[in-house]
Amino acid sequence: MIKAGSSFFHNGKRGTIGAVIVLKGVLYMITVSHIFRGEGDRLTVNGMELVVTGILKDYDLALIELPSGTAAEITEFGSPAELELAELINDTRTIHYCRVVNSGASLLFLGFQCHDMPEPEDSGSPIVQGGKVIGIMYSVTLDTCMGMAVSSKILRSLEV
């Protein structure tokens, strides 16, 4: 089953699916685009070879079309609650202490405990509050223990 937080592999490295959405009646998984060279890059998820279908450069997002009939769980999006705790969740780890410091129109600014920071392979992981995805992690600054995520406001705007 393909869902938010599941792993995929690209060039021998693990990546994380941030969300699964329906766009114009077609299933897509979303992750960060900075790990790919561009559209047409190949990746493997659940033994299937897939291709990056689209890149949204303004938001560092990659769309990967899923074949018809693929078992997938559509992501439920929530609205970020500022100054509240959230979690970074993927199928290899969970960071329980992640605080939404600020929420803008397209970005979330996150605070982490300095001893429990996201690692490079956590890029693309869903940020969750109340069981709903509020963003997709794409960047951290180690010296400030801060991170940034694409807001669910942008992700919801992609759904049709």
From TrEMBL:
Protein name, entry field: Serine protease
InterPro entries, sorted: Peptidase_S1_PA (IPR009003)
Organism: Methanosarcina acetivorans
GO terms for MF: peptidase activity
GO biological process annotation, one example: proteolysis
Protein keywords: Hydrolase, Protease
